Protein backbone atom coordinates (compact mmCIF):
# COMPACT_ATOMS: atom_id res chain seq x y z
CA UNK A 1 0.00 0.00 0.00
CA UNK A 2 1.38 3.42 -0.90
CA UNK A 3 0.95 5.81 2.10
CA UNK A 4 2.97 8.63 0.69
CA UNK A 5 0.14 10.64 -0.99
CA UNK A 6 -1.96 10.38 2.22
CA UNK A 7 0.85 11.63 4.47
CA UNK A 8 1.63 14.42 2.06
CA UNK A 9 -2.05 15.50 2.02
CA UNK A 10 -2.16 15.56 5.86
CA UNK A 11 1.05 17.56 6.05
CA UNK A 12 -0.29 20.03 3.51
CA UNK A 13 -3.47 20.54 5.56
CA UNK A 14 -1.45 21.15 8.74
CA UNK A 15 0.75 23.64 6.93
CA UNK A 16 -2.30 25.45 5.62
CA UNK A 17 -3.80 25.74 9.13
CA UNK A 18 -0.46 26.86 10.52
CA UNK A 19 -0.16 29.62 7.95
CA UNK A 20 -3.73 30.75 8.54
CA UNK A 21 -3.12 30.86 12.32
CA UNK A 22 0.05 32.83 11.71
CA UNK A 23 -1.86 35.32 9.64
CA UNK A 24 -4.63 35.67 12.24
CA UNK A 25 -2.36 35.92 15.28
CA UNK A 26 0.15 38.34 13.83
CA UNK A 27 -2.26 40.39 11.78
CA UNK A 28 -1.48 44.14 11.65
CA UNK A 29 -4.16 46.76 11.09
CA UNK A 30 -3.81 48.39 7.75
CA UNK A 31 -1.29 51.22 8.03
CA UNK A 32 -2.97 54.63 7.66
CA UNK A 33 -0.99 56.78 5.45
CA UNK A 34 -1.60 59.94 7.63
CA UNK A 35 -0.31 58.77 11.19
CA UNK A 36 3.22 60.01 11.88
CA UNK A 37 5.42 58.00 14.27
CA UNK A 38 5.59 59.30 17.95
CA UNK A 39 8.47 61.75 18.42
CA UNK A 40 11.35 60.22 20.35
CA UNK A 41 13.03 62.29 23.07
CA UNK A 42 16.71 62.94 22.64
CA UNK A 43 19.24 61.61 25.10
CA UNK A 44 19.77 65.19 26.31
CA UNK A 45 16.07 65.57 27.04
CA UNK A 46 15.96 62.28 28.95
CA UNK A 47 18.98 63.21 31.05
CA UNK A 48 17.39 66.60 31.71
CA UNK A 49 14.31 64.75 32.98
CA UNK A 50 16.45 62.73 35.38
CA UNK A 51 18.31 65.81 36.56
CA UNK A 52 14.96 67.41 37.27
CA UNK A 53 14.35 64.61 39.78
CA UNK A 54 17.60 65.46 41.58
CA UNK A 55 16.99 69.18 41.60
CA UNK A 56 13.23 69.02 42.26
CA UNK A 57 12.60 70.66 38.90
CA UNK A 58 10.12 70.22 36.06
CA UNK A 59 10.87 67.07 33.98
CA UNK A 60 9.02 68.57 30.99
CA UNK A 61 11.18 71.70 30.86
CA UNK A 62 13.56 70.27 28.25
CA UNK A 63 10.66 69.01 26.16
CA UNK A 64 9.20 72.45 25.49
CA UNK A 65 10.73 72.73 22.05
CA UNK A 66 7.61 73.65 20.13
CA UNK A 67 5.80 76.97 19.89
CA UNK A 68 2.11 77.77 19.86
CA UNK A 69 0.48 80.50 17.76
CA UNK A 70 1.41 83.18 20.35
CA UNK A 71 5.03 82.11 20.39
CA UNK A 72 4.84 80.47 23.83
CA UNK A 73 6.91 77.31 24.28
CA UNK A 74 4.88 74.11 24.07
CA UNK A 75 5.58 70.42 24.14
CA UNK A 76 5.13 68.75 20.74
CA UNK A 77 2.29 66.21 20.69
CA UNK A 78 3.29 62.90 22.16
CA UNK A 79 6.81 63.97 23.16
CA UNK A 80 7.49 62.52 26.58
CA UNK A 81 10.03 60.67 28.69
CA UNK A 82 9.52 58.06 31.45
CA UNK A 83 10.35 60.77 34.00
CA UNK A 84 7.18 62.67 33.15
CA UNK A 85 4.15 61.74 35.23
CA UNK A 86 6.21 59.48 37.43
CA UNK A 87 6.79 60.05 41.13
CA UNK A 88 10.40 60.46 42.25
CA UNK A 89 11.35 57.71 44.70
CA UNK A 90 13.38 59.81 47.12
CA UNK A 91 10.91 62.68 47.30
CA UNK A 92 7.95 60.32 47.58
CA UNK A 93 9.60 58.27 50.30
CA UNK A 94 10.34 61.33 52.39
CA UNK A 95 6.78 62.56 51.90
CA UNK A 96 5.27 59.27 53.04
CA UNK A 97 7.60 59.25 56.03
CA UNK A 98 6.62 62.83 56.82
CA UNK A 99 2.93 61.95 56.65
CA UNK A 100 3.49 59.14 59.14
CA UNK A 101 5.48 61.49 61.38
CA UNK A 102 2.71 64.06 61.43
CA UNK A 103 0.11 61.44 62.29
CA UNK A 104 2.49 60.31 65.05
CA UNK A 105 2.24 63.86 66.43
CA UNK A 106 -1.48 63.32 67.00
CA UNK A 107 -1.41 59.61 67.80
CA UNK A 108 0.02 59.39 70.36
CA UNK A 109 2.07 62.60 70.70
CA UNK A 110 -0.72 65.06 71.39
CA UNK A 111 -2.83 62.42 73.12
CA UNK A 112 -0.05 61.90 75.68
CA UNK A 113 0.93 65.55 75.94
CA UNK A 114 -2.63 66.65 76.67
CA UNK A 115 -3.62 63.42 78.42
CA UNK A 116 -0.92 63.87 81.04
CA UNK A 117 -1.95 67.45 81.73
CA UNK A 118 -5.58 66.78 82.67
CA UNK A 119 -6.88 65.16 85.84
CA UNK A 120 -6.90 61.39 85.92
CA UNK A 121 -10.67 61.15 85.55
CA UNK A 122 -10.47 62.87 82.14
CA UNK A 123 -7.37 61.31 80.60
CA UNK A 124 -9.33 59.09 78.23
CA UNK A 125 -11.61 61.89 77.08
CA UNK A 126 -8.67 63.78 75.62
CA UNK A 127 -7.37 60.67 73.93
CA UNK A 128 -10.82 59.85 72.60
CA UNK A 129 -11.01 63.28 71.01
CA UNK A 130 -7.68 62.75 69.23
CA UNK A 131 -8.83 59.37 68.00
CA UNK A 132 -12.19 60.74 66.96
CA UNK A 133 -10.66 63.46 64.84
CA UNK A 134 -8.30 61.01 63.15
CA UNK A 135 -11.30 59.17 61.76
CA UNK A 136 -13.79 61.99 61.33
CA UNK A 137 -11.47 64.39 59.54
CA UNK A 138 -10.24 61.62 57.23
CA UNK A 139 -13.79 60.92 56.15
CA UNK A 140 -14.50 64.61 55.56
CA UNK A 141 -11.17 64.96 53.71
CA UNK A 142 -11.97 62.06 51.43
CA UNK A 143 -15.49 63.21 50.67
CA UNK A 144 -14.65 66.81 49.77
CA UNK A 145 -12.17 68.35 52.21
CA UNK A 146 -9.07 67.72 50.15
CA UNK A 147 -10.80 69.08 47.08
CA UNK A 148 -12.02 72.22 48.84
CA UNK A 149 -8.49 72.99 49.99
CA UNK A 150 -6.28 71.95 47.12
CA UNK A 151 -8.33 72.04 43.94
CA UNK A 152 -8.51 75.31 42.11
CA UNK A 153 -11.84 77.09 42.38
CA UNK A 154 -11.82 80.63 43.59
CA UNK A 155 -9.51 82.56 45.87
CA UNK A 156 -11.35 81.39 49.03
CA UNK A 157 -12.25 77.76 48.37
CA UNK A 158 -11.55 75.02 45.87
CA UNK A 159 -14.25 73.24 43.92
CA UNK A 160 -15.32 69.59 44.09
CA UNK A 161 -13.03 68.33 41.30
CA UNK A 162 -11.16 66.02 43.68
CA UNK A 163 -14.22 64.87 45.66
CA UNK A 164 -13.87 61.27 46.84
CA UNK A 165 -10.23 61.64 45.79
CA UNK A 166 -11.27 61.48 42.16
CA UNK A 167 -8.22 61.97 39.90
CA UNK A 168 -5.93 61.74 42.91
CA UNK A 169 -3.58 58.98 41.85
CA UNK A 170 0.09 58.13 42.03
CA UNK A 171 1.22 60.60 39.39
CA UNK A 172 2.32 63.95 40.80
CA UNK A 173 -0.04 66.92 40.81
CA UNK A 174 2.30 69.45 39.30
CA UNK A 175 0.43 72.34 40.91
CA UNK A 176 2.09 71.30 44.16
CA UNK A 177 5.01 69.01 43.31
CA UNK A 178 6.75 67.49 40.33
CA UNK A 179 7.86 64.37 42.17
CA UNK A 180 5.50 63.51 45.02
CA UNK A 181 2.54 61.29 44.21
CA UNK A 182 -0.71 63.21 44.30
CA UNK A 183 -2.29 60.72 46.67
CA UNK A 184 0.71 60.88 49.00
CA UNK A 185 0.43 64.66 49.03
CA UNK A 186 -3.26 64.36 49.84
CA UNK A 187 -2.56 61.98 52.71
CA UNK A 188 0.21 64.22 54.02
CA UNK A 189 -2.05 67.22 54.08
CA UNK A 190 -4.74 65.11 55.75
CA UNK A 191 -2.50 64.72 58.79
CA UNK A 192 -2.39 68.52 59.14
CA UNK A 193 -6.16 68.66 58.84
CA UNK A 194 -6.39 66.10 61.65
CA UNK A 195 -4.05 67.73 64.15
CA UNK A 196 -5.35 71.27 63.77
CA UNK A 197 -8.76 70.67 65.38
CA UNK A 198 -7.09 68.33 67.86
CA UNK A 199 -5.18 71.31 69.22
CA UNK A 200 -8.42 73.08 70.11
CA UNK A 201 -9.49 70.39 72.57
CA UNK A 202 -6.69 71.52 74.85
CA UNK A 203 -8.38 74.78 75.71
CA UNK A 204 -11.75 73.28 76.58
CA UNK A 205 -10.52 70.04 78.11
CA UNK A 206 -12.50 68.42 80.92
CA UNK A 207 -15.76 70.30 80.34
CA UNK A 208 -17.17 69.78 76.85
CA UNK A 209 -19.16 66.66 76.09
CA UNK A 210 -18.22 64.32 73.28
CA UNK A 211 -21.28 64.92 71.10
CA UNK A 212 -20.56 68.65 71.14
CA UNK A 213 -16.99 67.98 70.02
CA UNK A 214 -18.20 65.90 67.06
CA UNK A 215 -20.60 68.59 65.86
CA UNK A 216 -18.33 71.53 66.56
CA UNK A 217 -15.31 70.05 64.81
CA UNK A 218 -17.28 68.99 61.73
CA UNK A 219 -18.60 72.52 61.30
CA UNK A 220 -15.25 74.08 62.15
CA UNK A 221 -13.45 72.23 59.38
CA UNK A 222 -15.80 73.69 56.78
CA UNK A 223 -16.11 77.18 58.22
CA UNK A 224 -12.51 77.82 59.26
CA UNK A 225 -9.93 75.22 58.26
CA UNK A 226 -10.82 74.45 54.63
CA UNK A 227 -11.13 78.13 53.64
CA UNK A 228 -7.98 79.30 55.43
CA UNK A 229 -5.94 76.34 54.20
CA UNK A 230 -7.09 77.00 50.64
CA UNK A 231 -6.32 80.68 50.90
CA UNK A 232 -2.78 80.06 52.15
CA UNK A 233 -1.80 76.87 50.33
CA UNK A 234 -4.28 76.41 47.47
CA UNK A 235 -2.84 77.09 44.02
CA UNK A 236 -5.25 79.99 43.48
CA UNK A 237 -5.43 80.98 47.14
CA UNK A 238 -6.15 84.53 48.30
CA UNK A 239 -3.05 84.56 50.55
CA UNK A 240 -0.70 82.19 48.69
CA UNK A 241 2.13 84.64 48.19
CA UNK A 242 4.77 82.12 47.13
CA UNK A 243 2.98 80.26 44.36
CA UNK A 244 -0.03 82.35 43.32
CA UNK A 245 1.11 85.32 41.26
CA UNK A 246 -2.43 86.71 41.54
CA UNK A 247 -2.70 86.39 45.33
CA UNK A 248 -4.34 89.44 46.89
CA UNK A 249 -2.35 89.08 50.09
CA UNK A 250 1.21 88.10 49.29
CA UNK A 251 1.88 86.30 52.56
CA UNK A 252 4.01 83.24 53.21
CA UNK A 253 3.50 80.33 55.58
CA UNK A 254 5.77 77.35 55.17
CA UNK A 255 4.17 74.71 57.36
CA UNK A 256 1.11 76.28 58.96
CA UNK A 257 1.67 79.16 61.36
CA UNK A 258 -1.59 80.73 60.22
CA UNK A 259 -3.38 77.66 58.86
CA UNK A 260 -2.77 75.41 61.86
CA UNK A 261 -1.70 77.37 64.91
CA UNK A 262 -3.50 80.67 64.54
CA UNK A 263 -6.79 79.11 63.48
CA UNK A 264 -6.79 76.53 66.27
CA UNK A 265 -5.33 78.85 68.89
CA UNK A 266 -7.69 81.79 68.45
CA UNK A 267 -10.68 79.49 67.99
CA UNK A 268 -9.62 77.80 71.22
CA UNK A 269 -9.66 81.10 73.09
CA UNK A 270 -13.12 82.04 71.85
CA UNK A 271 -14.47 78.60 72.58
CA UNK A 272 -13.08 78.51 76.09
CA UNK A 273 -14.64 81.90 76.81
CA UNK A 274 -18.04 80.75 75.51
CA UNK A 275 -17.87 77.35 77.23
CA UNK A 276 -16.77 78.87 80.53
CA UNK A 277 -14.47 77.66 83.25
CA UNK A 278 -14.24 74.22 84.72
CA UNK A 279 -16.29 73.69 87.90
CA UNK A 280 -14.14 74.62 90.82
CA UNK A 281 -11.54 76.44 88.71
CA UNK A 282 -9.53 78.75 90.92
CA UNK A 283 -10.47 76.95 94.13
CA UNK A 284 -10.00 73.21 93.53
CA UNK A 285 -6.46 72.17 92.69
CA UNK A 286 -6.28 70.68 89.21
CA UNK A 287 -2.63 69.74 88.74
CA UNK A 288 -1.59 67.50 85.83
CA UNK A 289 -2.15 63.89 86.76
CA UNK A 290 0.94 62.65 84.89
CA UNK A 291 3.72 64.96 83.82
CA UNK A 292 5.58 61.79 82.89
CA UNK A 293 3.04 61.10 80.12
CA UNK A 294 3.15 64.76 79.14
CA UNK A 295 6.92 64.68 78.69
CA UNK A 296 6.78 61.48 76.63
CA UNK A 297 4.22 63.17 74.40
CA UNK A 298 6.47 66.19 74.03
CA UNK A 299 9.33 64.07 72.73
CA UNK A 300 7.01 62.54 70.16
CA UNK A 301 5.76 65.96 69.12
CA UNK A 302 9.31 67.23 68.57
CA UNK A 303 10.35 64.23 66.51
CA UNK A 304 7.11 64.16 64.56
CA UNK A 305 7.35 67.87 63.84
CA UNK A 306 10.28 67.20 61.50
CA UNK A 307 7.68 65.67 59.22
CA UNK A 308 5.42 68.67 59.78
CA UNK A 309 8.10 71.24 58.96
CA UNK A 310 10.68 69.62 56.72
CA UNK A 311 7.95 67.62 55.00
CA UNK A 312 6.26 70.86 53.97
CA UNK A 313 9.00 71.29 51.37
CA UNK A 314 7.14 68.54 49.49
CA UNK A 315 10.52 67.35 48.30
CA UNK A 316 13.66 65.81 49.80
CA UNK A 317 15.73 68.80 48.78
CA UNK A 318 17.83 71.64 50.12
CA UNK A 319 14.78 73.56 51.31
CA UNK A 320 13.69 70.58 53.38
CA UNK A 321 17.22 70.32 54.71
CA UNK A 322 17.14 73.96 55.79
CA UNK A 323 13.71 73.54 57.36
CA UNK A 324 15.05 70.55 59.30
CA UNK A 325 17.92 72.65 60.62
CA UNK A 326 15.90 75.76 61.51
CA UNK A 327 13.30 73.62 63.28
CA UNK A 328 15.98 71.99 65.41
CA UNK A 329 17.63 75.28 66.41
CA UNK A 330 14.47 77.20 67.24
CA UNK A 331 12.97 74.35 69.25
CA UNK A 332 16.08 73.56 71.23
CA UNK A 333 16.70 77.20 72.11
CA UNK A 334 13.09 77.81 73.13
CA UNK A 335 13.03 74.68 75.28
CA UNK A 336 16.11 76.04 77.04
CA UNK A 337 14.95 79.62 77.44
CA UNK A 338 11.54 78.88 78.97
CA UNK A 339 12.79 76.86 81.97
CA UNK A 340 15.62 79.34 82.45
CA UNK A 341 12.99 82.08 82.86
CA UNK A 342 11.31 79.88 85.46
CA UNK A 343 14.59 79.34 87.24
CA UNK A 344 15.14 83.07 87.41
CA UNK A 345 11.59 84.09 88.30
CA UNK A 346 10.34 81.06 90.24
CA UNK A 347 13.54 79.54 91.60
CA UNK A 348 12.91 76.14 89.93
CA UNK A 349 13.07 75.06 86.25
CA UNK A 350 10.15 72.72 85.69
CA UNK A 351 9.72 69.74 83.38
CA UNK A 352 6.49 71.30 82.19
CA UNK A 353 8.56 74.37 81.37
CA UNK A 354 10.96 72.34 79.23
CA UNK A 355 8.01 70.72 77.46
CA UNK A 356 6.14 73.96 76.94
CA UNK A 357 9.27 75.69 75.68
CA UNK A 358 9.92 72.96 73.16
CA UNK A 359 6.36 73.05 71.86
CA UNK A 360 6.40 76.84 71.73
CA UNK A 361 9.61 76.76 69.72
CA UNK A 362 8.11 74.27 67.31
CA UNK A 363 5.00 76.40 66.90
CA UNK A 364 6.80 79.66 66.26
CA UNK A 365 9.27 78.22 63.73
CA UNK A 366 6.46 76.48 61.83
CA UNK A 367 5.59 79.27 59.36
CA UNK A 368 9.23 80.33 59.08
CA UNK A 369 11.21 77.10 58.87
CA UNK A 370 11.64 76.93 55.10
CA UNK A 371 12.12 80.67 54.64
CA UNK A 372 14.62 81.77 57.27
CA UNK A 373 18.31 81.16 57.82
CA UNK A 374 19.79 79.40 60.82
CA UNK A 375 20.47 82.75 62.43
CA UNK A 376 16.84 83.71 61.94
CA UNK A 377 15.86 80.43 63.52
CA UNK A 378 17.95 81.13 66.61
CA UNK A 379 16.29 84.54 67.00
CA UNK A 380 12.91 82.89 66.64
CA UNK A 381 13.83 80.35 69.30
CA UNK A 382 14.55 83.09 71.81
CA UNK A 383 11.24 84.86 71.16
CA UNK A 384 9.44 81.52 71.34
CA UNK A 385 10.85 80.87 74.78
CA UNK A 386 9.87 84.30 76.07
CA UNK A 387 6.57 85.50 74.59
CA UNK A 388 4.37 82.41 75.04
CA UNK A 389 5.95 81.99 78.50
CA UNK A 390 4.80 85.48 79.36
CA UNK A 391 1.27 84.80 78.15
CA UNK A 392 0.96 81.54 80.07
CA UNK A 393 2.42 82.90 83.30
CA UNK A 394 1.14 86.45 83.44
CA UNK A 395 -1.55 87.32 80.91
CA UNK A 396 -3.68 84.27 81.69
CA UNK A 397 -3.66 85.25 85.35
CA UNK A 398 -4.62 88.86 84.59
CA UNK A 399 -7.70 87.90 82.57
CA UNK A 400 -8.59 84.75 84.45
CA UNK A 401 -9.81 82.65 81.51
CA UNK A 402 -9.63 78.88 81.83
CA UNK A 403 -7.46 77.87 78.88
CA UNK A 404 -6.94 74.47 80.46
CA UNK A 405 -3.93 73.31 78.49
CA UNK A 406 -2.70 76.67 77.18
CA UNK A 407 -3.74 76.23 73.57
CA UNK A 408 -4.15 79.99 73.28
CA UNK A 409 -0.97 80.81 75.13
CA UNK A 410 1.19 78.53 73.02
CA UNK A 411 -0.54 78.07 69.66
CA UNK A 412 -2.39 81.32 69.09
CA UNK A 413 0.38 83.51 70.49
CA UNK A 414 3.10 81.33 69.00
CA UNK A 415 1.47 81.12 65.59
CA UNK A 416 0.87 84.87 65.51
CA UNK A 417 4.40 85.89 66.45
CA UNK A 418 5.70 83.17 64.15
CA UNK A 419 3.82 84.61 61.19
CA UNK A 420 5.06 88.08 62.09
CA UNK A 421 8.69 87.04 62.60
CA UNK A 422 8.55 85.23 59.26
CA UNK A 423 7.83 88.60 57.72
CA UNK A 424 10.91 90.12 59.28
CA UNK A 425 13.28 87.21 58.86
CA UNK A 426 12.46 85.55 55.50
CA UNK A 427 15.51 85.70 53.26
CA UNK A 428 16.07 84.94 49.59
CA UNK A 429 19.23 83.04 50.46
CA UNK A 430 17.15 80.56 52.45
CA UNK A 431 14.61 79.86 49.72
CA UNK A 432 15.02 80.70 46.04
CA UNK A 433 11.28 80.26 45.44
CA UNK A 434 10.67 83.58 47.17
CA UNK A 435 11.99 85.29 44.06
CA UNK A 436 9.24 83.84 41.85
CA UNK A 437 6.40 86.14 42.88
CA UNK A 438 7.74 88.05 45.88
CA UNK A 439 10.75 89.90 44.49
CA UNK A 440 9.46 93.25 45.69
CA UNK A 441 8.22 91.91 49.04
CA UNK A 442 11.27 89.97 50.20
CA UNK A 443 14.10 92.47 49.98
CA UNK A 444 16.28 90.88 52.67
CA UNK A 445 15.76 93.88 54.92
CA UNK A 446 14.36 93.61 58.44
CA UNK A 447 11.36 95.86 57.74
CA UNK A 448 10.76 94.48 54.27
CA UNK A 449 7.31 94.89 52.62
CA UNK A 450 6.56 91.24 53.39
CA UNK A 451 5.95 92.26 57.00
CA UNK A 452 2.79 94.14 55.99
CA UNK A 453 1.54 91.23 53.94
CA UNK A 454 2.02 88.99 56.97
CA UNK A 455 0.08 91.43 59.14
CA UNK A 456 -2.78 91.34 56.63
CA UNK A 457 -2.76 87.55 56.65
CA UNK A 458 -2.69 87.49 60.44
CA UNK A 459 -5.66 89.85 60.60
CA UNK A 460 -7.75 87.90 58.10
CA UNK A 461 -6.98 84.56 59.74
CA UNK A 462 -7.85 85.97 63.14
CA UNK A 463 -11.18 87.34 61.95
CA UNK A 464 -12.17 84.08 60.26
CA UNK A 465 -11.21 82.01 63.30
CA UNK A 466 -12.96 84.27 65.79
CA UNK A 467 -16.14 84.95 63.84
CA UNK A 468 -16.38 81.37 62.64
CA UNK A 469 -15.98 79.96 66.13
CA UNK A 470 -18.52 82.33 67.67
CA UNK A 471 -21.06 81.24 65.07
CA UNK A 472 -20.40 77.54 65.40
CA UNK A 473 -20.15 77.54 69.18
CA UNK A 474 -23.57 79.11 69.54
CA UNK A 475 -25.07 76.75 66.98
CA UNK A 476 -23.73 73.78 68.95
CA UNK A 477 -24.82 75.33 72.23
CA UNK A 478 -28.35 75.78 70.90
CA UNK A 479 -28.65 72.30 69.45
CA UNK A 480 -26.61 69.61 71.19
CA UNK A 481 -25.36 71.74 74.07
CA UNK A 482 -21.71 72.26 74.92
CA UNK A 483 -21.21 71.23 78.54
CA UNK A 484 -21.97 68.01 80.37
CA UNK A 485 -24.22 68.20 83.43
CA UNK A 486 -22.52 69.31 86.62
CA UNK A 487 -22.69 65.78 88.04
CA UNK A 488 -21.11 64.34 84.90
CA UNK A 489 -18.37 66.93 84.87
CA UNK A 490 -17.54 66.13 88.50
CA UNK A 491 -17.62 62.39 87.94
CA UNK A 492 -15.31 62.74 84.96
CA UNK A 493 -15.81 62.50 81.21
CA UNK A 494 -14.03 59.15 80.92
CA UNK A 495 -16.89 57.46 82.73
CA UNK A 496 -19.76 59.62 81.57
CA UNK A 497 -18.87 59.94 77.88
CA UNK A 498 -16.96 56.71 77.33
CA UNK A 499 -17.84 54.33 80.16
CA UNK A 500 -14.19 53.63 80.88
CA UNK A 501 -11.47 54.32 83.41
CA UNK A 502 -7.98 55.22 82.29
CA UNK A 503 -6.24 53.40 85.12
CA UNK A 504 -7.53 50.62 87.32
CA UNK A 505 -5.34 50.03 90.38
CA UNK A 506 -6.58 46.83 91.92
CA UNK A 507 -5.57 45.39 95.27
CA UNK A 508 -4.03 41.99 94.43
CA UNK A 509 -6.08 38.82 95.14
CA UNK B 1 -7.09 44.38 125.43
CA UNK B 2 -5.96 47.51 123.68
CA UNK B 3 -5.82 48.67 120.07
CA UNK B 4 -2.65 50.68 119.45
CA UNK B 5 -2.90 53.04 116.48
CA UNK B 6 0.32 54.71 115.33
CA UNK B 7 0.58 57.37 112.61
CA UNK B 8 4.21 57.46 111.49
CA UNK B 9 6.41 58.74 108.67
CA UNK B 10 6.25 56.24 105.77
CA UNK B 11 10.00 55.56 105.56
CA UNK B 12 9.94 54.42 109.23
CA UNK B 13 7.61 51.50 108.57
CA UNK B 14 10.26 48.78 108.16
CA UNK B 15 12.07 49.89 111.32
CA UNK B 16 8.86 49.87 113.39
CA UNK B 17 7.82 46.49 112.02
CA UNK B 18 11.21 44.96 112.87
CA UNK B 19 11.16 46.50 116.35
CA UNK B 20 7.69 45.09 117.06
CA UNK B 21 8.81 41.71 115.75
CA UNK B 22 11.63 41.55 118.24
CA UNK B 23 9.15 42.12 121.09
CA UNK B 24 7.01 39.23 119.90
CA UNK B 25 4.32 41.13 118.00
CA UNK B 26 3.88 39.45 114.61
CA UNK B 27 0.55 40.71 113.34
CA UNK B 28 -0.44 44.24 112.30
CA UNK B 29 -2.53 46.16 109.79
CA UNK B 30 -0.95 48.94 107.76
CA UNK B 31 -2.80 51.67 105.82
CA UNK B 32 -1.50 54.54 103.68
CA UNK B 33 -3.06 57.77 104.91
CA UNK B 34 -2.51 61.49 104.58
CA UNK B 35 -2.67 64.18 107.16
CA UNK B 36 -0.96 67.10 108.82
CA UNK B 37 -0.37 68.50 112.23
CA UNK B 38 2.33 71.09 112.65
CA UNK B 39 4.33 69.96 109.63
CA UNK B 40 3.66 72.22 106.65
CA UNK B 41 2.96 70.97 103.12
CA UNK B 42 4.58 72.28 99.96
CA UNK B 43 3.78 74.38 96.87
CA UNK B 44 3.67 73.13 93.30
CA UNK B 45 3.60 75.34 90.23
CA UNK B 46 2.34 74.22 86.82
CA UNK B 47 2.74 76.84 84.09
CA UNK B 48 1.72 79.72 86.28
CA UNK B 49 -0.94 77.89 88.32
CA UNK B 50 0.15 77.55 91.93
CA UNK B 51 -1.16 74.85 94.24
CA UNK B 52 -0.51 74.47 97.97
CA UNK B 53 -0.53 70.84 99.03
CA UNK B 54 -1.38 70.72 102.77
CA UNK B 55 -1.65 67.00 103.25
CA UNK B 56 1.43 64.85 103.78
CA UNK B 57 1.61 61.13 103.21
CA UNK B 58 1.78 59.04 106.40
CA UNK B 59 1.41 55.36 107.36
CA UNK B 60 -1.05 54.09 109.98
CA UNK B 61 -0.19 50.92 111.91
CA UNK B 62 -2.82 49.13 113.99
CA UNK B 63 -1.84 46.45 116.50
CA UNK B 64 -4.14 44.62 118.96
CA UNK B 65 -2.37 43.66 122.24
CA UNK B 66 -3.02 42.49 125.82
CA UNK B 67 -3.53 45.45 128.13
CA UNK B 68 -0.51 44.66 130.34
CA UNK B 69 2.02 44.82 127.49
CA UNK B 70 0.48 47.90 125.85
CA UNK B 71 2.89 50.42 127.46
CA UNK B 72 5.90 48.38 126.33
CA UNK B 73 4.56 48.22 122.74
CA UNK B 74 4.02 51.99 122.76
CA UNK B 75 7.62 52.45 123.91
CA UNK B 76 8.90 50.19 121.14
CA UNK B 77 7.01 52.03 118.43
CA UNK B 78 8.09 55.39 119.83
CA UNK B 79 11.76 54.50 119.81
CA UNK B 80 11.67 53.11 116.28
CA UNK B 81 9.55 55.84 114.68
CA UNK B 82 11.19 58.90 116.21
CA UNK B 83 13.41 61.22 114.13
CA UNK B 84 13.20 64.26 116.38
CA UNK B 85 11.80 66.47 113.57
CA UNK B 86 8.31 67.89 113.16
CA UNK B 87 5.92 65.39 111.52
CA UNK B 88 7.03 62.25 113.43
CA UNK B 89 3.39 61.41 114.12
CA UNK B 90 1.28 60.22 117.07
CA UNK B 91 0.31 57.01 118.86
CA UNK B 92 -3.25 56.41 120.13
CA UNK B 93 -4.19 53.68 122.60
CA UNK B 94 -7.87 52.77 122.59
CA UNK B 95 -9.69 50.11 124.59
CA UNK B 96 -10.58 47.03 122.56
CA UNK B 97 -13.91 45.39 123.38
CA UNK B 98 -13.74 42.10 121.48
CA UNK B 99 -11.55 40.18 119.04
CA UNK B 100 -12.63 37.19 116.89
CA UNK B 101 -10.33 34.98 114.80
CA UNK B 102 -12.25 34.26 111.64
CA UNK B 103 -10.67 30.89 110.85
CA UNK B 104 -11.39 29.28 114.22
CA UNK B 105 -14.04 31.53 115.77
CA UNK B 106 -11.83 31.94 118.87
CA UNK B 107 -12.57 35.06 120.84
CA UNK B 108 -10.88 37.27 123.40
CA UNK B 109 -7.21 36.99 124.30
CA UNK B 110 -6.96 33.65 122.51
CA UNK B 111 -7.70 35.47 119.28
CA UNK B 112 -4.78 37.88 119.70
Please tell me about this protein's structure:
The complex is a heterodimer of chains A (509) and B (112). Helix content of chain A is 61%, strand content 1%. Chain A is an all-alpha fold. Chain A has a two-stranded antiparallel ribbon. The mean pLDDT of chain A is 94. Chain B is of the alpha+beta class and 112 residues long. Chain B has a single domain, classed as Alpha-Beta Plaits, CATH 3.30.70. Chain B has 2 helices and 6 strands. A 4-stranded antiparallel β-sheet of chain B has the order 2-5-1-6, covered by helices on one side. In chain B, strands 3-4 form a two-stranded antiparallel sheet. In chain B, a hairpin with a 2-residue loop joins strand 3 and strand 4. The longest helix of chain B is centred in the last third of the chain and has 12 residues. Chain B is elongated, with a radius of gyration of 17 Å. The model of chain B has no long low-confidence stretch (mean pLDDT 93). Chains A and B meet through helix 10 and helix 11 of A and strand 3 and strand 4 of B.
Can you tag this structure with a few keywords?
heterodimer; A: 509 residues; mainly alpha; Ammonium transporter fold; 2 domains; two-stranded antiparallel sheet; 61% helix; globular; B: 112 residues; Alpha-Beta Plaits; four-stranded antiparallel beta sheet; 37% strand; elongated
Q: What's this, in brief?
A:
By secondary structure, chain A is mainly alpha-helical. Chain A is 61% helix and 1% strand.
Amino acid sequence: MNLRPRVLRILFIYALFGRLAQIVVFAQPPASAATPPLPAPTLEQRVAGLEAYLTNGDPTAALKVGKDKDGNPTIPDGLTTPSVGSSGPGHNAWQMTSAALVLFMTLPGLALFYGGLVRRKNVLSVMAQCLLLSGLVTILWWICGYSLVFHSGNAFLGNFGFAFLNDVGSAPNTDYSYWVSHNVFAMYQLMFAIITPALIVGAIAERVKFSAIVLFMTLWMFVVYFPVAHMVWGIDGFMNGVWNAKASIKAIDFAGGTVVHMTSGWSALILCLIVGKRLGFGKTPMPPHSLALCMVGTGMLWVGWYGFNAGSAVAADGIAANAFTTTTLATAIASFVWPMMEWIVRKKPSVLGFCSGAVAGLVVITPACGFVTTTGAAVIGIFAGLVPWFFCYKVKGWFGYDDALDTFGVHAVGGTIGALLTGFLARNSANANLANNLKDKVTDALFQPLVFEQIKAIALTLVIAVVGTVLIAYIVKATVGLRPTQENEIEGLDLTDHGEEGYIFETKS
Amino acid sequence: MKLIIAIIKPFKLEEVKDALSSTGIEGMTVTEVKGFGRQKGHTEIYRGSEYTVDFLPKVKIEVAVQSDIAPKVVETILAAAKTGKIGDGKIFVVPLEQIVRIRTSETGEQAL
